[in-house]
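With this grant's support, we have settled on a layout for protein records. An illustrative entry appears below exactly as we store it:
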Amino acid sequence: MPSAAHCKAALVTGLGLYGANPARTVFITHRNSIARHFWSLLVDRKTHPIESRAATRLARLPTFAISLPPALQVTPPKPTLKCDRVMEIRAAFLACGSLAAGAHGYHLEFVLPNPELAERLVWMLRSTGRAPKRTVRKRRDVLYYKDFEAIVDVLTIIGAFGAVLHLEDVRALRDTKNRIHRLVNTEAANLDRAAAAAAAQRRVIEYLESAFGLGELSPPLREIAELRMAYPGESLAELGARCNPPIAKPTVSSRLTALSRLAARLRTGRAS
């Protein structure tokens, strides 16, 4: 609740402006907390009680209605003070705004009942430095943001700090999941490449064994060929650790490459 009297006046005026029915006689909301908030800002609460209406087929949520005092049934001039403009944006968010953080990204929108109010709210939001995008959905003007930083800025300006913290938690969790998926996909791709390379090396060694004989190879090449055939699933580093004496991964790769070159020469009939 704002402390200054003019900010409270801007808030209640904004709620009556953006939450009223087309005839501008009743404030309507589906949230009991918002209805109580608007009612608490009224000067004469006894003559404007909260009425609870049953859910309809179109609006499956219960509806809470409060008759508007005559002073709130007319469109006020645009606020001149920045804090009053912020209060009106807050009122618009409470009355006709929504926030979503689904699988397709982040979305903050205001669904306005008529183009005049849409133009007014665009002016308010531009005055804060965050101009919204605009579209028409089911004959109603919609102002929206999809950029995360812009959404956080708007929510912070109007004092929706709980929503900002929730959004930050959602983004942190989503980023963590994305990093895990990337790491898993990268590791799976590396394993696939290693398995394909090991299979190709085994085919080379099998060809050399049938066409040349592993006994004709030099001791280092014969050792690495026999180890690859005996341990088809191991990495180059693991094969190097099994050599006597152990050798580094680049040396294992060099010896396997030498086997591939020898097999290529044999296939082209140029083996010496």
